[in-house]
Write a structure and sequence with these properties.
- The chain has helices at 16-27, 30-42, 46-74, 78-88, 97-128, 137-148, 151-171, 177-200, 205-213, 222-235, 242-247, 256-284, 296-306, 311-345, 349-369, 388-416, 419-426, 431-454, and strands spanning 378-380, 383-385.
- It is mainly alpha-helical and 458 residues long.
- It starts with 15 loop residues before the first helix and ends with a helix.
- Helix 5 (97-128) crosses helix 16 and helix 13 runs antiparallel to helix 14 (311-345).
- The structure holds tryptophan.
Length: 458
């Protein structure tokens, strides 16, 4: 049956491992190293982390399997995949809107993601030049605020990062990317372990463990729960078709359950390690606070490096790896749009990449300005946010669009698709029933309850 299945016009991964690496490359990114620590800090630690872990297990993994499955069955961009599958199942064409919303979400996420990746790029040079080596914590904070309050600098780094992204996308996801991920992801893991080793000796490692794993459920606001769930989607690259399109390049005989679990576990590990590397440093400097916001890792990690033997080299390497991690994620944010432009507008891959990249770059300017001229404060369900448009884009995409996309994916896979089809695609024995239960009831109900809770409806 599966042997007759056609291959996507965009190509196919050379093996199951290439898919795992590419999807892990998509999942592991700024979400793990930059976002997870700072939102955990903002929402008070332990209880937030536990909700996030539950969401990964109960919502994330089953939806990842659904996305890979739909992608591999449809073998096209998410928009066309959903249209084809809806037709195959005798359902309304409106299901292709999952793809449209995904394209929009990916585009909006990349517009700010590239700006933050630009910060990391700037830090490669700041750390590498020794500028940070000589600084104390006040100095490190000054270097950060000087960078983000200068829109011209941010624009330059944003432009450079977008160019890097579009070069890879233009060459096709397979070329170059597979190799880069294979080499650099293990290196990132090793360096994270080195940093955790350093953090263990700061004298505040136990404080960090307590902060990350001792839940104080009184801190669990509706905003915290929603953000934890949104982050589970964000960090696993779910809910917008990124994993779906990577799944569309997956060889027919690879196990979807096994690959999805490997990707999710690896992603979660990297996030927890990042937390264990960062919070001990935060707690050893009285003028740093866990709730520092998006600047958190840029104000803490350089301090750890400044105080560590070989810190100049490790520090530079570490920021290079953050850039690489962001790079392998950003291409997956735009790939669904590019694939659609190729399929439906007859564009070449290069011009599809150029046009979608230019549009994203332009929208990114709103984020560039969010840390200076356009900065404003607002209250998001009890948490004060300081960076105007950037925070709004982040909340809109991660906390609303991705969970909604995931909800519709779960409903389609669990309720609209014939059981025979999902069974055939997943090729599981007894564990199929577990997935079936999670995708039909647990995942959609949890997403709905959390969203409705937000509006005070439950
Ligand atoms: N998961 C990536 C990170 O944690 C970001 C990302 C890549 C993403 N592709 C995505 C987020 C698709 C949502 C949807 O940095």
């Amino acid at each position: 049956m599966s042997e007759e299945k056609k291959i996507s016009i965009h190509g196919q991964w050379s093996s199951r491992w290439s898919f795992i690496l590419a999807a892990t490359g998509s999942a592991v990114g700024l979400g793990n190293i930059w976002k997870f620590p700072y939102i955990t800090g903002e929402y008070g630690g332990g209880a937030f982390v536990i909700v996030y872990l539950f969401c990964v297990a109960l919502i994330g993994i089953p939806i990842m399997m659904a996305e890979v499955m739909l992608g591999r069955r449809g073998r096209q961009s998410p928009i066309n995949t959903m249209r084809t599958l809806a037709k195959e199942e005798g359902r309304h064409g409106i299901w292709s809107w999952i793809g449209w919303m995904g394209v929009l979400a990916g585009f909006l996420i990349l517009s700010y993601y590239a700006v933050i990746a630009g910060w990391a790029l700037a830090y490669v040079f700041r750390v590498g030049s020794g500028m940070i080596q000589a600084s104390d914590s006040a100095g490190v904070q000054a270097i950060f605020s000087e960078l983000v309050s200068d829109p011209e600098k941010l624009l330059a780094w944003h432009t450079l990062f977008m160019a890097l992204t579009m070069v890879v996308v233009a060459r096709g996801v397979k070329q170059g990317l597979e190799k880069a991920v294979r080499l650099l992801m293990p290196l990132l893991l090793i360096l994270l372990l080195v940093l955790v080793g350093y953090a263990m000796n700061t004298g505040h490692f136990n404080d960090a463990i307590d902060f990350l794993f001792k839940p104080d459920f009184s801190k669990l606001t509706a905003g915290a729960i929603l953000t934890a769930m949104g982050h589970a989607f964000f960090t696993l690259s779910l809910g917008m078709g990124a994993i779906m399109i990577y799944g569309s390049y997956l060889p027919a005989n690879a196990s979807i359950a096994q690959t999805s679990i490997i990707i999710s576990v690896a992603d979660t590990l990297v996030a927890l390690l990042a937390g264990l590397a960062i919070f001990p440093v935060v707690f050893s400097f009285p003028d740093l606070t866990p709730g520092a916001g998006p600047g958190l890792i840029f104000q803490t990690l350089p301090l750890a490096f400044a105080n560590m033997p070989g810190g100049l080299i490790f520090g530079t390497l570490f920021f290079i790896l953050i850039v690489v991690a962001a790079w392998t994620s950003s291409i997956s944010l735009i790939e669904p749009a590019v694939a659609w432009l190729i399929e439906n507008r007859g564009m070449t891959r290069v011009s599809a990449a150029v046009w979608s990249g230019l549009a994203t770059w332009l929208v990114g300017i709103a984020t560039v300005l969010s840390f200076s001229h356009w900065a404003f404060d607002f209250n998001f369900l009890g948490t004060v946010k300081h960076n105007g448009v950037f925070d709004i884009l982040d909340i809109l995409t991660a906390n609303i669009m991705l969970p909604l996309g995931g909800l519709f994916i779960a409903v389609f896979a669990g309720w609209m698709m014939k059981q025979k089809h999902s069974k055939e695609e997943l090729a599981l024995n007894h564990s199929y029933r577990l997935w079936w239960f999670l995708i039909r009831y647990v995942a959609p109900v949890l997403v709905l309850v959390i969203i409705l809770n937000l509006f005070g409806l439950i």
